[in-house]
Write a structure and sequence with these properties.
6 helices, about 65% helix
């Protein structure tokens, strides 16, 4: 898998975590209460999730013939890492306010990702 593909797979997993997708055994709901992702970045993440499912999830007969072509998510691709960071940052703020046990480690991971993106520019 190329680096971009790996990033898309990680983004898919983080989006599932943030939106507590059905069947997700672990999500943000395990760490904070009463929070749901909102805003433009969150809406874009919701829009791109079905595309990421089709192209980056475990293969099955349904996914082998995706309904949406890869070209469809090009409109999201460049923006995706920034949208994930924005929504994760919102989650971290709530986790800190609620004194969640994971707030510090997730904050560190988000800041590391932010610095990595800034260094790529």
């Amino acid at each position: 898998m190329q680096p971009a593909g790996a990033m898309m797979l990680h983004a898919r997993n983080l989006i599932r975590f943030l939106f507590a997708v059905d069947g997700q055994s672990y999500s943000q709901e395990n760490f904070v209460s009463g929070w749901k992702p909102t805003g433009d970045a969150a809406e874009r993440l919701k829009d791109v999730l079905p595309i990421l499912h089709q192209h980056f999830a475990h293969p099955n007969p349904r996914r082998l013939k995706p309904k949406l072509p890869r070209e469809h998510f090009r409109q999201y691709r460049d923006r995706l890492p920034y949208d994930v960071l924005e929504v994760m940052s919102d989650f971290v703020k709530i986790a800190q306010l609620q004194e969640s046990s994971v707030a510090g480690s997730i904050y560190a991971a988000v800041e590391t990702a932010r610095l990595s993106l800034e260094n790529e520019l």
